[in-house]
Amino acid sequence: MYRLRFHGRGGQGARVASKVLGTAAFLDGYYAQDFPLYGAERRGAPVAASTRIAEEPIMERGVIPEPDIEIVMDETLLQDPLTMPLSGLKPGGIAIINTTHSPAEAKAEYKINANVLTLDITKIGLDMLGMPILSTLAGGVAARIVGLSEDSLTEAVEKVLSEIITDRNLLDKNVAAALYCFNAITPAETETETKIEIELKTSDTSKKKSSKVISLPFEPAEVSSPAINATGNTPLRMTGNWRVFRPVWNYEACTRCMICVARCPDGCILVNEDGYPYPNYDNCKGCLICVEECPTSTLGKVMEVHAKNEIE
Ligand code: SF4
Ligand code: SF4
Fold first, then answer.
1. What residue ranges define each of the domains in the chain, with the CATH number in brackets?
2. Which of 260, 268, 303 to mutate to test the pocket of ligand 1 (most atoms within 8 A of CB)?
C-alpha cells in the first residue's frame, strides 16, 4: 500500500489533489481512499489531505501518521511548528516540495532527512492557469511518483474538476497543467523501511502501470490537525506566514471608502490618522478578499514567497 499526505493551505487545493490522485489510482485498477483533514474553513490555514492506494481492499481508516510520500504544496508550512508537514515521514520515503529550490538546497534549508524532490508548482500554476490553485498540478506530480498512467490522470482531472467547475477552458488548462507536472517531476527510486517498490525509471506508461503495490500492517491514527493550545490566542498566531500573495495599497486612487476594512475577514486592516487603510502584515493571511472588493484600482498584490515578479 502507498500512503500519501498532501499539505497545503486552504484555497490551494490539497483536498482536490488527493481526490485526483485517488481517482486516477482507481481508474488504473487499484483500490483507493482519499480524504481531507481540516478544521474550520479558513482560506490560507494549513490543510492536510491523504490518499491510500493498494492492490487489495483497504481496511485501514483514519489519518495517516507515517506516510510513504509527502507532498508539501506550500513550503512555508515547513517552518510552521504547529503544522510540521513532514512529521512521521517514513525513513526512505519521499518529500515532494513546491519550491524554487533544488532538492539539495531544500534539504539543507529545511534540514530534511529524507529523499526530496522539488518542483516550482506555484510558478507552473500561475503560468498555465493564471492562479496559484495547485490541486491538479500536485495530483499530477503524485500520480507520476506512484507510477500511475497519464490516461488515468487525464480522466481523473476531467472527472473531479467537472464536479467543481463549469468552465471548459479552465478544465482543459488544468488537464494540461496536471500532465505538465506529471512529466516535469524527476522521478526517484526509493526504498522505505517496508521495502515499498517504486518503478519510476521509465516514462513508458505500460511499465509504470505495473508498479508493485504491497500491503503494510495497520497503524493507528495518531496525528491530528493543528491544535488550539490555549484560549484567546488567535492574535498571537502570526498568520502572515500563510501568505502566497501580499495585498499592497496605492493611496493615489484610494477614495477611503473603507470597503476593504469592512470585508477583511480577519480584521487586520487598520486606518491611519489621515483616514487611509493599512494592513497588519503580521496577521494578514493573504486571502486577497480586499483586492477583490476594492472598487478602485488602489489595491494590488505581489507574490510573497520567493518573490520574483510583481503581479499587477
Ligand atoms: S488584508 Fe486583505 S489579504 Fe489580508 S487578510 Fe485581510 S482581506 Fe485578506
Ligand atoms: S476598498 Fe479600495 S478605495 Fe476603498 S478604502 Fe480600501 S483601498 Fe481605498
1. 2-209 (3.40.920.10), 234-311 (3.30.70.20)
2. 268
